[in-house]
Design a protein that fits this description.
Rossmann fold; 2 domains; 6-stranded parallel β-sheet; alpha/beta
Length: 437
């Protein structure tokens, strides 16, 4: 099929590239001339394992192309995916749908023949209705259907998630559109990936409900970790004990410094706003958001406590800046709040992240960026593991000891065991477990 994807950011680029692997012809359109020029030159604007090769292969064979001419891309397409940003709106925290609605007007003016318009962006309940209204108002003679097809892509594992999904959710209201979407996802459907057809509003809510639940699960285990520290229990054993229950499951039960990224923070906030606007408040979600924000700054206090209550004039090494490994995404990363609090307390920050230096430099000030973990540890009074990159899982403690002023490690991802650290003479602190501090 001929597919146009409006928006060549994370979701649009991954989706468009993967669709070409299914045999479809895809044009990714974006108004950002620099981004499109880079993509046409073979430069990928985001870090996602394996994406560069898919883009290179399908661009070379002509099934994947990039353009700033959105109207031309729409005109040639049978299916148009809207994959533009929906950031939190300043002032009220609701999803900003400006880009979605602008794309809808462009599509309305450019579509030629029956076209299925698909909202791939994460949008609040009822957005599809408004997209449909805008298209009909702009082009009363248009022949089209509006479909909801939310993405469930984990950064760092997006290609695997797209090609081997737990489910494909499609919100559709007519048989013509359903047949088109079945054809779009036919390769996955033949591999027995669950293709769930629901109403459009149900589809829109599924996405928010899923992210809200996972954010709440992360926040729950983080509060259990605090309780473990208070009573002398081990949160990893607690997580394993409850995760073996099939009704609960083991995923998203890793205690840490709080959730961040491009999805959970804005989607939980948008869900709360949608609920409030419909007089159906979600108190659990409201509390989840508040607890998570407090936790990020609370982790800085944990670092200060491990440094005998004072970091003024001290050098703190930070390992990991991105909100999770295998991405360069710094949006709402816990490292930001942690570093800001430590700097306000008088600390000097030396940091290393395998992929996040460029994006981190746009949001963090007065940070010394190191070449590797050992460079970050030079003359450090303490070292903090914030993101669980594989490169940090087997650090050479002898090299760290030679580099650091004081062998104090605060492990916010529970990568190491306290007993192991004790053997190396490390003053060690972790999350929700007995320490040797």
């Amino acid at each position: 099929m001929k597919i146009a994807v409006i928006g060549s950011g994370y979701v649009g680029l991954v989706s468009g590239a993967c669709f070409t692997d299914f045999g479809h012809t895809v044009i990714c359109a974006d108004l950002d001339e620099n981004k499109i020029s880079a993509l046409n030159a073979g430069k990928i604007p985001i870090f996602e394992p394996g994406l560069d090769q898919i883009v290179k292969t399908n661009s070379a064979r002509g099934s994947l192309s990039f353009t700033t001419d959105v109207a031309a891309a729409v005109k040639s397409a049978e299916v148009v995916f809207i994959a533009v940003g929906t950031p939190s709106r300043r002032g009220d925290g609701h999803a900003d749908l400006t880009y979605v609605y602008d794309a809808s007007r462009t599509i309305a003016k450019a579509m030629d023949g029956y076209t299925v318009v698909v909202t791939k962006s994460t949008v609040p309940v009822g957005t599809g209705d408004e997209v449909e209204r805008i298209i009909r108002e702009t082009n009363p003679d248009a022949d089209f259907s509006v479909v909801s097809n939310p993405e469930f892509l984990r950064e760092g594992a997006a290609i695997e998630d797209f090609k081997r999904p737990d489910r494909i959710v499609v919100g559709v209201g007519d048989d013509r559109a359903r047949a088109v979407m079945e054809e779009v996802y036919r390769p996955l459907f033949l591999n027995q990936s669950p293709l769930l057809f629901v109403t459009r509003r149900t589809s829109e809510l599924i996405k928010y409900a899923a992210n809200g639940f996972l954010a709440m699960k992360i926040t729950f285990i983080n509060e259990i970790a605090d309780l473990c520290e208070a009573v002398g229990a081990d949160v990893q054993e607690v997580a394993r004990g409850i995760g073996l229950d099939n009704r609960i499951g083991a995923k998203f039960l890793n205690a840490g410094p709080g959730y961040g990224g491009s999805c959970f923070p804005k989607d939980t906030l948008a869900l709360v706003k949608t609920a409030q606007n419909n007089n159906s408040p979600m108190r659990l979600m409201e509390t989840t958001i508040a607890v998570n924000e407090d936790r990020k700054r609370g982790m800085a206090q944990k670092v200060i406590a491990a440094c005998d209550g004072d970091v003024s004039g001290k050098t703190i090494a930070i390992l990991g800046l991105t909100f999770k490994p295998n991405t360069d995404d710094m949006r709402d990363a816990p490292s930001i709040a942690i570093i800001e609090v430590l700097q306000a307390a008088g600390a000097t920050i030396r940091a290393f992240d395998p992929e996040g230096k460029e994006t981190a430099s746009r949001v963090l000030e007065n940070v010394i960026y190191a070449d590797d973990a050992y460079d970050a540890a030079k003359n450090a009074d303490a070292l903090v593991i914030v993101t669980e990159w594989d490169a940090f899982r087997a650090l050479d403690m002898a090299r760290l000891s030679d580099a650091m002023k004081t062998m104090t490690i605060i492990d916010l991802r529970n990568i190491y065991a306290a007993s192991e650290m004790e053997k190396h003479g490390v003053k060690y602190s972790s999350i929700g477990r007995p320490d040797n501090v």
